[in-house]
Amino acid sequence: MSQDEQEIRSAIDDWAEGVRTKDIERCLAHYADDAVQFDIAPPLKNTGKDVNRKNLEMWFPSFAGQIRYDITDLQVYAADDVAFAHCINHMTGTRSDGEDTDVWLRATVGLRRVDAKWLIVHEHVSVPFYMDGSMRAAVDLKP
């Protein structure tokens, strides 16, 4: 494993720990100021750390306690100052309304080395949907 791959894996693991502990600053530390996100929540596209901060400020309190966020099948590809990674993630937890969440997500991130630090410049998180005409999110899938 290259030094770049180790650094990227470490950054992604630290970001996930920020999600688990609902630490907004820890999460944001891994994004470029102009990062673009295609997230599972509307709208279709978000740009910038400020938007990301607002989304996390709304999302984290929707869980009653810690969020369990496990990253699986992480693949990292790095060359020079650009990299991308993809993984399948498992998120569980109890929502503030008492409902349990248990969902598998797909994620792809593009990274750029900025001042010797790998930062996320593009993020795409999704869940598949059933193509049977129902347009239902396929949140019952498991790897």
Structure description:
With 143 residues, the protein is an alpha+beta fold. It has one domain: Roll (Nuclear Transport Factor 2, Chain: A). The protein is 24% helix and 42% strand. It is built from three helices and six strands, in the order H-H-E-E-H-E-E-E-E. It has helices spanning 3-20, 24-28, 49-59, and strands spanning 31-38, 46-47, 68-79, 82-94, 100-114, 117-126. The chain has a six-stranded mixed sheet with strand order 2-1-6-5-4-3, with helices on one face. The longest helix has 18 residues, at 3-20. The chain is globular, with a radius of gyration of 15 Å. The two termini are 25 Å apart. The model has no long low-confidence stretch (mean pLDDT 95).
How many strands, which pairing sense, and closed or not: the largest β-sheet? 6 strands, mixed
> What is the gyration radius calculated from CA atoms?
15 Å
- Portion of residues in helices? 10-25%
Q: Report the strand count.
A: 6
Percent strand equals: 35-45%
**What sort of overall outline do the alpha carbons produce when their principal axes are compared?**
globular
Report the CATH C-level class: Alpha Beta
Query: In terms of per-residue confidence, which ranges show pLDDT below 50 for 5 or more consecutive residues?
Result: none
What count of domains describes the coordinates?
A: 1
Rounded mean pLDDT is 95
Name of the CATH architecture: Roll
Helix count equals: 3
Quickly give the structural class.
alpha+beta
Q: How are the strands of the largest sheet arranged?
A: 2-1-6-5-4-3
User: Do you know the CATH topology?
Assistant: Nuclear Transport Factor 2, Chain: A
H/E element string? Answer: HHEEHEEEE
From the N-terminal CA to the C-terminal CA, the straight-line distance is 25 Å
